[in-house]
């Protein structure tokens, strides 16, 4: 029996023996500009409760190219060749009932302590599989989102949003998700979800 971190209830699962996690999606990402480190442990005292830790461990890698000739005209019409890759740690967080999710958002700082969220935020969320009968440690999908400042304005800690309805789409971004589909046994320590886009 698993208790969900958001207090929405519990889930009873039968976990078959001889079931093992897959061998991919176990690299933590690269780059020297790590954004956040998740807490090493949680307690029942604030501010270390799981329910208060909305951000999970993440890494941001930014790469660029001086030669965009290999990119499609759809991409170069919108991008100068810079590409971002966000990697999320899928810790044992059990983020709510079927379809629950957690992720990170990037906001613009005009100075060290002043945020300018006029143009909104780019967020990446990992969602639990919502398929009937799916266990709480099964990955469902990743969502790269554009969240308007009218929907969420930091330093507010939360807002009402559905990742699938705010997801970015279109060839100009050349979005690549890994895993690209639902995958069992992912919400355990040592597995990661990534998104790459221009």
Brief description of this entry?
The chain has 198 residues and is mainly beta.
Structural overview:
By secondary structure, the protein is mainly beta. The protein has one domain. It has helices at 73-76, 163-166, and strands spanning 2-3, 10-11, 58-63, 83-89, 101-106, 108-109, 115-116, 121-128, 139-147, 176-178, 192-197. It has a four-stranded antiparallel β-sheet, with no helix packed on it. Strands 5-8-9 form a three-stranded antiparallel β-sheet. A two-stranded antiparallel sheet has the order 1-2. Strand 6 and strand 7 form a beta hairpin.
Essential attributes:
mainly beta, 198 residues, 27% strand, 3-stranded antiparallel β-sheet, 4-stranded antiparallel β-sheet, 2 helices
Oligomer state equals single chain
Order of helices and strands: EEEHEEEEEEHEE
Shape: globular
Q: What's the helical proportion of residues?
A: under 10%
Largest sheet, in brief, is: 4 strands, antiparallel
Quick one: how many beta strands? 11
Q: Could you say which structural class the secondary elements and strand pairing correspond to?
A: mainly beta
> How many whole angstroms does the radius of gyration measure?
18 Å
């Amino acid at each position: 029996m698993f208790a969900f971190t958001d207090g929405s209830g519990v889930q009873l699962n039968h976990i078959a023996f001889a079931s093992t996690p897959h061998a991919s999606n176990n690299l933590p990402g690269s780059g020297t500009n790590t954004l956040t480190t998740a807490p090493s442990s949680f307690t029942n005292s604030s501010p270390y409760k799981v329910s208060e830790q909305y951000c999970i461990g993440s890494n941001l890698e930014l790469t660029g190219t001086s030669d965009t000739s290999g990119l499609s005209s759809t991409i170069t019409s919108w991008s100068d060749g810079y590409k971002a890759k966000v990697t999320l740690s899928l810790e044992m967080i059990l983020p709510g009932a079927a379809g629950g999710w957690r992720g990170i958002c990037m906001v613009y700082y005009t100075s060290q302590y002043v945020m300018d969220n006029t143009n909104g935020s780019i967020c990446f969320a990992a969602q639990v599989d919502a398929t009937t009968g799916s266990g709480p440690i099964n990955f469902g999908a990743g969502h790269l989102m554009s969240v308007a400042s009218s929907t969420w304005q930091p330093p507010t800690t939360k807002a009402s949003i559905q990742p699938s309805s705010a997801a970015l789409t279109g060839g100009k971004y050349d979005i690549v998700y890994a895993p690209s589909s639902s995958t069992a046994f992912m919400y355990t320590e040592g597995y990661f979800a990534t998104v790459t886009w221009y």
